[in-house]
Amino acid sequence: MIDIGSNLASKAFREDLDTVLRHARRTNVTAIVATGTSESVSRAVLEIAREKSYGDGPRIFSTAGIHPHHAKDFSRSSADALRAMACNPEVRAIGECGLDFDRNFSPRDAQLRCFDAQLELAADLAMPVFLHERAAEDDFSAVLSRFRPRLTRAVVHCFTGTGETLARYLDLDLHIGITGWICDERRGTHLVELVRRIPSDRMMIETDAPYILPRSMPRAERPRTGRNEPRFLRWVLKAVAEARGEAEADLERATVATTNAFFDLPADA
Ligand SMILES: [Zn+2]
After folding, report:
1. Is 14 helix (H, G, I), strand (E, B) or coil?
2. Neighbours of 181 (CB within 10 A)
3. Residue 186's CB: how many other CB atoms inside 10 A?
4. Cα-to-centroid distance, 34 and ligand 1 (Å)
5. CA 218 from chain center: how many Å?
6. Residue 15 has pLDDT above 70, yes or no
7. How far is the CA of 98 from the centre of ligand 1 (A)?
8. What is the mean pLDDT of the chain?
9. Could you tell me the distance, in angstroms and rounded to a whole number, from the CA of residue 55 to the centre of ligand 1?
10. Of the candidate ranges 5-14, 47-56, 106-115, the one whose mean pLDDT is the lowest
11. CA of 200 to the centre of ligand 1 (A)
């Protein structure tokens, strides 16, 4: 399996990242794309991809981008820094970028400017984009419609939206990332029906660790801290396979093939 979204530079992994990675490999996670969410975090995940890829863990890649929460800190110099980072072979996408009108940690106009600049960069470098959207589907779709012809590939990570939104995103030829949200019996049950509508060459899976621990895990297996890890990706795979009525092994093969193509991962990954 490949985890397309894991926040490996999070404080939550500072103490035991090597163990976390070893456990991931043992549960068949062969590669991880570590998410960059700010200039410094993008630098940190690139560092992790460089240093940790050759141990007994999964192969690690990274993204370089600025999350909408941090859009207010975006400047010309951060755009230049992202561009420089993106030239490293470990960096496989621009992002995480997008719009979050749910929490509005940055003003909306700052989010729109920051999003625009990163799509411009992705178009310029012909790199795929790793996207975040919360409560902003109208503006998000409008911005993407404008850029879509110039973008190679784009994935809406941690999709949690409605059927209508999903249809819009598939029409925009976006890929869809599914997390353990689908395992949440309180707020994710709508996804059980919706994942059947995603063509297999458009769907990828992710943990978004340390967040979104799959609630379908048996209580005894759930870490007391509630910390999610890449090794729990199999619970996402299981939930999606059940929802689609597919064998886990088939779904695993399909998502790995889709992910390899999306991020253009080297053949030895
Ligand atoms: Zn996100």
Report:
1. coil
2. 20
3. 6
4. 12
5. 25
6. yes
7. 9
8. 96
9. 28
10. 47-56
11. 22
